[in-house]
Specification:
With 290 residues, the chain is an alpha+beta fold. It folds into 2 domains: 2-127 and 266-284, Probable inorganic polyphosphate/atp-NAD kinase, domain 1 (Rossmann fold), CATH 3.40.50; 130-262, Tumour Suppressor Smad4. Helices cover 20% and strands 34% of the residues. The chain has 7 helices and 20 strands. The chain has a 6-stranded parallel sheet, with helices on both faces. Strands 9-8-19-16-11-12 form a 6-stranded antiparallel sheet, with no helix packed on it. It is elongated and about 60 Å long.
């Protein structure tokens, strides 16, 4: 197999493990391909002068590898998922972050994980993705999200009004700091922090979680993934933020329709034996701890 390697280049603890892994892969007769930022960092530190590992453009990396290894935390894995894009390239998260909820493998376990993959003892878990479209037919700067889309007031002094309809039927008018549209994967991220429910990733639903709503009765709601959600935002003429997996853009046109729906493609996460979502909840989120 050919393994692509990307990672959080802001973390100094990235470099030695990646250099060591590349040398080990080559010793096993396997091939490595490097994200350009990772390749530049290794060259600058003189860690891989004798390696045959090729550096590919970010655009080509996921297209030419069998598995994409993502070294970092959950934010890095989200970036890797967007690199994989609609190609369906499998992604394996290798944790060098603080928690790494989505990263199943710790950095010291990565060689054993690759041996397991080479033996074929793994499966791919297809994670649901949301996509967004603006009323004028254009797509946002980041048109789909593995975790969530967020509408946010962008530092405005007052709350914003968010009108939501579901399959053409009015759902609610939110007066809040913002509104989160989360996937099951994203249910343990921003949505959870805002009071949303934990949803098993094998469910296909969309979670709407308000951010600091100005009412005690407005709670999160879970909708089937088959629905089409239309959103209009009113801010008194000020721009607001539409964010996808943490990547933000300003929307200047007040009241234009934003449509959010389930995307046709999925993100494929590599899952190894002996690791289960419920175990991750208990060990990393301390779910149910006393």
């Amino acid at each position: 197999m050919i393994y692509g390697i990307t990672g959080n280049t802001q973390k100094e603890q990235l470099w030695e493990p990646v250099a060591s892994l590349v040398r080990w892969l080559e010793a096993q007769g396997l091939e490595a391909r490097l994200h350009p930022a990772v390749a530049r960092g290794l060259v600058a530190r003189k860690l891989l002068s004798d390696s045959k590992a090729a550096a590919l453009t970010a655009h080509d990396l996921a297209a030419e590898v069998d598995v994409l290894l993502s070294f970092g935390g959950d934010g890095t894995l989200l970036q890797s998922a967007h690199l994989a894009g609609r190609r369906g390239t499998p992604v394996l998260g290798v944790n060098i972050g603080r928690m790494g909820f989505l990263a199943d493998v710790e950095v010291e376990q990565v060689r054993e994980a690759i041996r397991t993959i080479e033996a074929g003892d793994f499966h791919l878990e297809a994670r649901m993705v949301l996509e967004a479209e603006l009323e004028d037919g254009s797509t946002p700067a980041l048109p789909w999200a593995l975790n969530e889309f967020v509408i946010d007031r962008s530092g405005l002094a007052g709350l914003i009004t968010i009108e939501v309809t579901v399959d053409g039927v009015p759902l609610n008018r939110y007066w809040a700091d913002g509104l989160i549209f989360a996937t099951p994967t994203g249910s343990t991220a921003y949505s959870l922090s805002a009071g949303g429910p934990i949803v098993s990733p094998n469910c296909e639903v969309v979670i709407l979680t308000p951010i600091a709503p100005h009412t005690l009765t407005l709670r999160p709601i879970v909708l089937p993934a088959s629905v089409e959600i239309d959103v209009r935002v009113y801010t008194g003429g000020q721009p607001y933020v539409l964010a996808a997996d943490g990547h933000s853009q300003l929307i200047h046109r007040e009241g234009q329709r934003i449509t959010i729906r389930k995307a046709q493609h999925t993100v494929n996460l590599v899952k190894l034996p002996g690791r289960h979502y419920f175990q991750t909840l208990r060990t990393k989120l301390m779910w149910g701890a006393r």
